[in-house]
Amino acid sequence: MKRRDFLKSTAALAGASAVSAPAIFSSAKAQTRNETLLIVSESGPNNVDIHGVGTNVPGYEVSWNCYDRLISHEMKTGPSGQPYYDKDKFKMELADDMNVGDMSATFKLKKNATFQDGTPVTAKDVKWSLDRAVTVGGFPTFQMRAGSLTKAEQFVVVDDNTFRVDFAKKDRLTIPDLAVVVPAIYNSELVKKNATEKDPWGMEYTKLNTAGSGAYKVTSWTAGSEVIMERNETWKGGPLPKIKRVIWRMVPSAGNRRALLERGDADISYELPNKDFVELKSAGKLNIISTPFSNGCQYIGMNVKNPPFDNPKVRQAVAYALPYQKIMDAVLFGLGKPLFGGPEKAVEAAWPLAHKYNTDMAKAKALMAEAGYPNGFETTISFDLGFATVNEPLCVLVQESLGQIGIKCEINKIPGANFRTELNKKTLPLYTNVFSGWLDYPEYFYIWCYHGNNSIFNTMGYQSKDMDALIDGAVTAAAAGDKAAWEKDVKGFVDLAYTDIPRIPLFQPYSNVAMQKNVSGYAYWFHRRLDYRGFSKA
Amino acid sequence: MLTLIFKRMLMAIPSLIGVVIVTFLLTRALPGDPAAYFAGPAATKEAVEQIRVKLGLDQPLIVQFGRYVTDLAKGDLGSSLTTGQPVAKEIRARLPASAELTLLGLIVSMAVAIPLGILAATKPGSMIDHACRVITTAGVSLPVFFTGLILVYLFYYQLGWAPAPLGRLDIFTSPPKSITGLYLIDSLLAGNLEVFWASLKQLILPALTLAIFSLAPIARMTRAAMLAVLASDFVRTARASGLSEFTVIVTYAFRNAMLPVITTLGMVFSFLLGANVLVEKVFAWPGIGSFAVEALIASDFAPVQGFVLTMAIMYVALNLLIDVLYGLIDPRVRVEA
After folding, report:
1. How far out from the chain centre does Cα B6 lie?
2. Does residue A393 have a cis bond before it (omega within 30 degrees)?
3. pLDDT tens across A432-486, in order?
């Protein structure tokens, strides 16, 4: 074959392979397109029941949209103008009326509410569902316990239409805990029909099928690739949603999720790298909404039980040596709320608050010398590979910075499956992690992360009598409604946490969502997943 | 022939038993703790323990193994925790997706690589020989995810010719009734040309990506085998007898050069089937490779074991098929069991 022939034939080949294909939506389908929401994300649910064993976070999203709770939250305006759930104002969902007494709360159910198969919702179903949440163990039971809801006896059927929750003790988190994802109301008859002796709560059935009264129902689910949800036309929990059909596709490659958005084929995506969000934002073709995680932050934790981090001077030295601004610029591309360089003492009773530390190598070196480590020491810094896009560059920057005060860090990358186990051993000397709580109350965060009862989130092994007294004080004051005492204790424990500094907050991560300009109605929820009920498309 | 197949199957049993034992032990030796992983970030120690008991992971290894083997004997591969589905069902659904993609990729690759290899061998040192070398080297040295992303960028993002990389079908087409699990074949069987076209469009880019990657071994092997055969006496005789160049090369030489090519094809196919994880990731393809890798990351034992077992069985079957093919291509070859 001659060279010219070869070139000719390859050109022909290239032409032949370039078969033209229309974009995935043709004009004839425009009508349904307007009522269909196409979501692309990295991973999908492994179980559509939040009570399931090991249900993952995408599974929460399905549960949230396909089940109703007794109550939910009203909306307010968030930090950048987006709708944001109002943690203090409740909205009735399956309940028609809520009457909170001293040691109990009584709910009247909506009379005309039905499950998706047409059976009416009764107080029996509510009791069965909440019994299930406190009995099945694992995450749902743990979450219910956070609101002092622990025993089936607390849930009482008054009559078909009236339901009562008895409080185990005064706890201001009890009512908010009834509005989280876990206390969903199930169609008890339908689930019981599909239960077996080995599986009395019908977990195998609800794993694959939705059995609620919610605004959407799962009509097709191919694990790992697609979930399709259709609107429940008889939903009574609120005004009928505008979106008829939600198609949720799993697209593992972040580059392709971005391409799908930019080409206009996908309506919404989240879980993109920060860099992509920043570029999309400046390109201006899409709506990008960034909201700081409520009650959460990324931090550097130190194990305070073992040297050298048992010495508060060393911890303060580290706090002065961290490259805060570099992390904001080079790792987050500005998509995070800084939690450093704040005032000396807490000025308001809120959380998270910025601490007083800022990068100051001279101070850090002086503190290291004072602590008796003028030449530094060697240690390891660990992170979860599951979130490597943020964690890896962050740890490299920290390593470089700590090197300047003589702390030689080796970076220890831990695979996602193993990170929790390692963290729970409470032996990692230095690590970075994110903690965020559903219930947005400072004392809630502190009970889990700083209290001496040593919950699993107190990953530093931190113990302080003063801290415990302040946290317990705030909890008691909140339950009694004593605002002044509560504020004093909250400011007190924040100040103490920042003087002792067993963990150094870096920033509040942003929950980033990118959507087409014609999509509106995104709202931020404590669970940070999408609520389809508010969306509409122009 | 039948005795050969039967004997070979018997011989495969010990290796399969070995595979079962080794994968079981290997998955248990992984550092991750599935109970902690699936208890979620907010789980207490007790919650993790409860999940451990539910998953049966609190039992001694030998008991767990016994349970696994009994289930396996009943055809139950266990359930995946990452997707929440029975592993057997997942593999049944995902294997055809991978197989369809790999087969098409291999066909495209063969269509390019074999002629290319033959041409290169007939004119060693020529322009086409160099082109063959350059193309195959480039194909094999570009990582598949890179080729895949470039193709998506060019044909979907820039030119808009290819459909969105959203898996096997666009979102408004429903899959054909499952007969073989291969959408191309099923849609033709159902006489539904629209679905056939839709799934073909989705297949073009990922198949091309795989094809580019697998050009090298096939083209190089064809070239080497052809060179050896073309230098042999019977080709010289055939040429001397005045047979046309086409007859000499295709009928005489290529037929004799096919054995090593077939062996390579078999190897490339089984390699691609398990190893095209990256292509699956780029094109959101619901295949078996990405399923296994995701399970591995989550220390999800059952799918990993199921995957390795399926692959082992496929490998045995494929090798058997190739041996049978040998006999058909070259009657001189006798494969002894």
Report:
1. 25
2. no
3. 998 888 888 898 889 888 988 777 788 898 998 999 999 999 988 988 888 899 9
CA of A53 to nearest chain B CA: how many angstroms apart?
7
Residues in A closer than 8 angstroms to B208, CB to CB, are 17
CA angle A52, A54, A58 (to 5 degrees): 90
**Position A31: which residue type?**
Q
Residue in A with minimal Cα distance to B111:
A13
Burial class from Cβ neighbours inside 10 Å (0-12, 13-18, 19+) for residue A120 reads middle
Residue B100 DSSP code: H
For chain A, give the mean pLDDT. Answer: 87
In eight-state DSSP terms, residue B127 is H
| B50/A260 touch (CB, cutoff 8 Å), yes or no | no
Which of these, B136, B131, B109, lies nearest to B120 by C-alpha position?
B131
Cβ separation A54–B42 shorter than 8 A: no
- Tell me what the mean pLDDT of segment B256-276 comes to: 82
Comparing CA positions, the residue from A355, A336, A343, A349 lying closest to residue A298 is A336
Q: Which fold has domain B90-336?
A: MetI-like fold (1.10.3720)
Task: Give residue A129's pLDDT.
Answer: 95
- To the nearest whole Å, the CA of A260 is away from the closest chain B CA by 7
Q: Is B191 on the interface with A (CB under 8 A)?
A: no
Q: Does B153 contact A1 at a Cβ distance shorter than 8 Å?
A: no
What is the three-class DSSP state of A38?
Answer: strand
Cβ–Cβ below 8 Å for A24 and B170? yes
CB contact under 8 A, B51 and A54: yes
CA distance A446 to A10: 67
Domain boundaries of chain B, sorted by first residue:
2-73, 90-336
Check residue B266 and give its pLDDT.
Answer: 85
Q: Which tokens in the block code for residue B96? A: 């055809």
Instruction: Report helix, strand or coil for A356.
Output: coil
Residue A249: in which H helix or E strand, if any?
A: strand A245-250
Structure tokens at A411: 């970076």
Put simply, whether B3 touches A (Cβ < 8 Å) is no
